[in-house]
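Holo model, pyridoxal-5'-phosphate. Inputs:
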Amino acid sequence: MRTLRSEELFERAQKVIPGGVNSPVRAMRAVGRDPLFIDSASGAELVDVDGNRFIDYVCSWGPLIAGHAHPDVVEAVTAAAARGTSYGAPTQAEVELAEQVVSRVPSAEMVRLVNSGTEATMTALRLARAATGRDRVLKFSGAYHGHVDGLLADAGSGLATQGIPASPGVTRGQAADTLVCAWNDRDGFTKFMDASGDELAAVIAEPLPANMGIVPPAVGFLELLRERCEDCGALLIFDEVISGFRVSSGGMQTLAGVKPDLTVLGKVLGGGLPLAAVAGPAASMERLAPAGETYQAGTLSGNPLATAAGLATLGLLTQDAYAGLEATTTKLVTGLKEAADDAGVPIRLASECGLLTVFFSDDAVESYEGARASDGDAFACFHGSMLEQGIYLPPSQFEAWFPSLAHDEEQIERTIAAAARAFEAVAA
Ligand SMILES: *Cc1c(COP(=O)(O)O)cnc(C)c1O
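Output:
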């Protein structure tokens, strides 16, 4: 694998962009290497600036469920661009996209479109605080909700009564308003809600956590969140920025049969362009200006190119498409497990339709603590071997792989064959 042009670009980038990247995980530091600069992509494949080809399982970290440069998406975006890139006035496509969200997502009656998942969680918190008149929010350790100041707080080990800023620059006030509980810890959560539940504006959770690797909810855990929020008068916010439109047409809330008060959506919804949303019942959503007094706005919100990409992508997401994606995921998971077993490498696989994580661990992974106990060196070795063999994986043990509708059987088989060699490298 030649990386000359990538090396040269990375050198230039580091002089003018902090760390050389515009989002930290792209830097590939966790696997001890420098990033590859991408030149183009099509279907399930990426081509870097040195002409190396890869089967891509990052897929822009989730938006590209249809694969790169899907002809329908490219055509929709191109046609939209020719009619003007932004008006600062309403369009038909915004209405159609909101209608799509309402028809697919059980808890959604109204939708506000924004530009990023971060903005959407920020808006959901503001709505919850406006609705309850309370300031504090409970999140779960290992969950990611964008780089919203308050939500960067993470005590890292179970319940915290006082948030500690995980990032310099987060005010003490914001940190103190954020409480953290361990994921899947029924007792810890129950105790917290018994003691302080009535101080909470909201409990925010990824109903299928995917930012510490995939760590599914234990049986009954989402139901417990629903019940205790109801009891305490706190809103339950599901952050489905990854799981929305991916694990099923209606997201994780459909699979689990648990309805949140507010839902945060992004990634797939924008089909690879900057777009996200907060959705919920009309009574909550009409608190937003100009219907209500809770302020929220955006120069480029509901941008015509982004809504065109979103509508084209959702148009591809039929029940048959989900059945296909599920089959692809299962084939990949089964093959990876066999390959690891053959090489004698202990792994734990977690997956849902269109998502999977390979934890290099002997033990079941049910929490952030469990995820962090997995073997990062083994992962780095595996990642390096896969990259050498033309398979582009997320460069972190704590991120999910994103198979797409574009990954075909031959590419899945090639991936499994490469993984067999990579697991052998790990075992050696
Ligand atoms: C990616 C992500 C976000 C943040 O979305 P951005 O568009 O990157 O701001 C929020 N929540 C979850 C669960 C995510 O995976």
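Residues 116-118, 121, 144-146, 206, 211, 239, 241-242, 266, 276 surround pyridoxal-5'-phosphate (CB under 6 Å). DSSP finds 14 helices and 13 strands in the chain.
Archived with the compound record.
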